[in-house]
Design a protein that fits this description.
The protein contains nine helices and six strands. The protein is an alpha/beta fold and 222 residues long. The protein has a six-stranded parallel beta sheet with strand order 3-2-1-4-5-6, sandwiched between helices.
Length: 222
């Protein structure tokens, strides 16, 4: 396989090890409204925009015959918890090396994240190498229609890089992200370490044709 026309990188759970922290923030926030989120519910929130997640959690609270808060009230509880947890987020193994190698080989690249611009800045502050990804499609991008799992984020990233999405490699870790990239026509690489494959139940739900990675260190450009 030759070089990709571009590499499109998710952030949370792919470049930065944030997903356990996001789950912890949602667990703490929903407990205050009487709901304990199950593992499969936490999995369903991964890779999605903050407001989309809040709307989903609000519906679960209502389904549990509890009084659902507004999305604004729910996020007012959840966001301070998340911001405190995200102060020192470690990079995923091999993430910095992969991004730097991509740039060194002059492969166009973009960050495609459901996080807002402010959240990305907060999380990536200690990781200067993320600034190498100058082209970005973020959750609050004014040009973005629907968020992941819709194809819009990856289609917009490919358009900004002026490349065919079908010639791009997309790197993801979530079901919503993988479905988004696949629907856009990208070749999808999903980071799913062996010890997590059964634990999170993600593998059977992935779109057909995704390449599974146990580590970003496995990625080779030829």
């Amino acid at each position: 396989m030759g070089l990709p026309a571009a590499c499109l990188f998710d952030l949370d759970g792919l470049l930065l090890d944030t997903e356990p922290l996001h789950s912890q923030a949602w667990l703490q926030a929903t407990a205050g409204f009487g709901l304990t989120l199950a593992a499969e519910q936490l999995l369903a929130l991964r890779g999605r925009r903050r407001l989309d997640c809040a709307e989903q959690v609000r519906s679960w609270i209502a389904q549990a015959d509890l009084v659902p808060p507004s999305c604004e009230a729910l996020l007012a509880v959840r966001q301070p918890i998340a911001e405190l947890l995200m102060r020192q987020v470690p990079a995923m193994p091999g993430a910095q090396m992969l991004v730097e190698r991509c740039i060194a080989q002059a492969i166009p690249a973009a960050l495609v994240s459901s996080s807002s611009a402010a959240a990305v800045a907060h999380k990536s502050g200690p990781h200067g190498w993320i600034a190498l990804l100058e082209t970005r499609v973020l959750g609050d991008d004014p040009d973005l229609g629907a968020g992941k799992p819709a194809p819009d984020p990856y289609l917009l990233a490919a358009r900004r890089l002026e490349v065919d999405p079908a010639a791009c490699w997309a790197f993801e870790d979530s079901l919503a992200g993988a479905r988004s990239a696949k629907a856009a026509g990208c070749l999808v690489h999903v980071l799913l370490p062996a010890e997590q494959q059964l634990a999170v139940g993600l593998k059977p739900q992935l779109p057909a044709g995704c390449t599974l990675l146990q580590s970003l260190e496995q990625v080779k450009f030829r």
